[in-house]
Amino acid sequence: MLSRKQKHLLLKFFSLLSVVRGYNILVIAIAQYLTSIYILAPDLPLGQVVFDPNLLCLVLASAAAIAGGYIINNFYDSEKDLINRPNKTMLDRIVSQQTKLSGYFILNLISVVFASYVSFRAVAFFSIYIFMIWFYSHKLKKYPFVGNLVAAILAVVPFFAVFIYYQNFNEVIFVHATFLFLLISMRELTKDLENITGDLAQNYRTIPVVYGTKISKRMLSFLSIATLVPIVLLLVKYDVGYMFIYFLGSILSLALFNVILWKSSRKLHYIILHTILKLIIVVGVFSIVLLNVDVVLSRVI
Description:
Number of strands: 0
Radius of gyration: 20 Å
Distance between the termini: 50 Å
């Protein structure tokens, strides 16, 4: 049996994991590696990509910066989250605000240290990224449109770190990035609908608060239709291998999303919508291997 002190330490560990959203960071790290292998550096030997110390440092720098971002976001949103997510917030509060801030600065320092192994440009890149995460959490997220746009941009920035490293400027990469950007924009707006009660209480001027739920739903429907543009381009113009199955599934999932969206009237409905979008994004990460199912075998040697 665990002692009382051990149980408390275990709770603190899970609390910290909840704050930094370790599962999200793991998915992003996997996505960076899969993107590098299958999209950014498809002609390099597999081992050269997987065991590249520079790529590892970029992924670790991204992970540390994102973890720090979650902490500072949690710090500024603590009162709002107490209304929107009381159970999760009570778990998060096991770790003190002072400890969270200390962790935030340490993680940012770690991010810059890993970036410094790659180049001075990487240090500048992640320093700006860290600043923008703080500025978004402190100011920008409280404003309609700007907050949503910046949040979506910040979510795809880690992929641009490896994109710049490999200097692959193939237009298909921008089409994939546009599809991801639109999905993340939808997720951010859906989160605003889900959290409207706390946003109203804390005077956050999000799109649902300022313009109402009907306008927000129209915007979500428009964004879901807009995702068809990169999907059609990827299916018609480029060779996506068996990943076409994922894109067809995404179309069906977004159709279901719209059906539920226009019947939604309470928080549970928006949580379901948020979950659908998260599943599309996460499944998309692991579906990258479908671009070429033989790539591992053909590049091992």
